[in-house]
Amino acid sequence: MRYSDFKIVEAKLDEIPDDGFGAAQDNGYTDRRNIRAMLGMDDDGNVSRGLEQGPPYPPEDAEIVNAMQRQLEHLGYSVGTTGQDGKYGPRTARAVRAFKQDNNLGTDGMTMSAEDIEALLSATRVANPTPTGNEAGGAGRGSVELPNPDGDGGSGQLRLNRGMSPLLDLSGGQSSMTQSDADTEMQETLRMAREMAGIFGKPLTINDAIAKRGTSRESSTPGSQHFHGTALDLDTSGYSDEEKLQLVNAALQAGFSGFGFGVNILHVDRGTRRHWAYGNSSYGGVRVADLGRTVRNYSPFPGMDRGASTGIA
After folding, report:
1. Do the beta carbons of residue 224 and residue 211 sit within 8 Å?
2. Which of 42, 73, 218, 291 has the most crowded Cβ, counting Cβ within 10 A?
3. Based on the domain organization, do 138 and 179 belong to the same domain?
4. Could you give the percent of the chain with pLDDT greater than 90?
5. How far, in Å, are 53, 179, 238 from residue 158 at the CA level?
6. Using one digit for the tens of pLDDT, what is the confidence trace for 28-74?
7. Has residue 119 got a pLDDT over 60?
8. What is the mean pLDDT of residues 145-168?
9. Could you tell me if residue 305 is inside a domain?
10. Do 277 and 154 fall within a single domain?
11. Within the chain, what is the greatest distance between any pair of CA atoms?
């Protein structure tokens, strides 16, 4: 063998990482190497610390989180329309939760322990990755299931309208008028909505949530609860009159206090007790004025059973 040939072989061998990932997987290997280096390693060569969901979003963790987001996407867990932004926010937490669920690591998406990170770095893609709920930010119609962060089997199911792309956090696209704690408030709003869906007995589809940038809401309803993360617009298209009234019952029992009644929409929020319509005089076959009285006068009985009547007929 000529010396020049030997040098070429030597160079090629030097390009192969110690863990066996070759050039075809160079990006994945680089992320693994970078994450381990930036988080630090213990005496056994494993990651020595974990990560937590923000805010705050420590600048020193941005590159680590960015690499983690790339690995999640590589494994089939969408981190949302903002993509790999280096922030461990609600969308990344939903991706982490789905990854953990598929790999028997629990259902907590708000933290990644050192052991969880090691599992992520060595994971291979499963056949059918659990949807993260972030896929709704993409193009297309229909709905996608929003996973339950608590894994509570007694809670109802929520779906996101893909065509409307509802905003559930502050990782991009929110109005400049949106309050800084709107994403935290939205988590409580979603918890109540899941309870509402459980009482209703069917999945609920969310059309709109946190106020978005550039919508008419900024000029026409600047006091909207959507700016606070305490409101949802739910799709009621295809519901019978009876189902629409059952939905109002469920919302009241779940603790919602503000209602907007539309032909194919039900607005619910956590503001003061009030109601309005969107140009329609009735909802579910009942006059909006009568529904308003029920909303204003509603007072849950102590120990009321889920699904019990609230007086709407």
Report:
1. yes
2. 291
3. yes
4. 39
5. 22, 24, 17
6. 444 566 666 666 666 666 666 788 888 888 888 888 888 888 889 88
7. yes
8. 74
9. no
10. yes
11. 94
Same domain (yes/no): 166, 78: no
Structure token pair of residue 22: 């070759």
**The two three-digit tokens of residue 76, written as one number:** 């089939």
Same-domain status, 53 and 77: yes
Q: What is the pLDDT of residues 245-285, one digit of tens each?
A: 999 999 999 999 999 999 999 999 999 999 999 999 999 99
Contact 94, 160 (CB under 8 A): no
As to burial, measured by CB atoms within 10 angstroms (0-12 exposed, 13-18 middle, 19+ buried), residue 47 is buried
List, edge to edge, every strand of the sheet that includes 274-277: 143-146, 158-161, 204-208, 231-235, 265-269, 258-261, 274-277
CB contact at 8 A, 224 and 208: no
**210 and 186 Cβ atoms separated by less than 8 Å:** yes
Which is nearest to 204 in space by CA: 174, 170, 248, 257? 248
Enter the DSSP assignment of 301. Answer: P
Tokens (6 digits) for 104: 């028997």
Q: Are strands 274-277 and 204-208 parallel, antiparallel or unpaired?
A: unpaired
What CATH number is attached to the domain comprising 144? 3.30.1380.10
DSSP secondary structure letter of residue 47: B
Residue 141 shares a structural domain with residue 267: yes
| Any domain includes 307 | no
Cα 137 to chain centroid, rounded:
11
133-156 burial, b at 16+ Cβ within 10 Å, e below that, comes to bbbbbeeeeebbbbbbbeeeeebb
**Tell me, what DSSP letter sits at residue 164?**
T
Whether 143 and 96 share a structural domain: no
Report the number of distinct structural domains present in the chain.
2
Tokens 């708000």: give the residue: 110
Strand partners, 206: 160, 234
Residue range of the domain that includes 106 = 3-122
Quickly state the pLDDT bin for 131 (edges 50, 70, 90).
confident
Provide the token pair at 212. 């978005």
Locate the DSSP E strands across 88-235.
Answer: 111-112, 143-146, 158-161, 204-208, 231-235
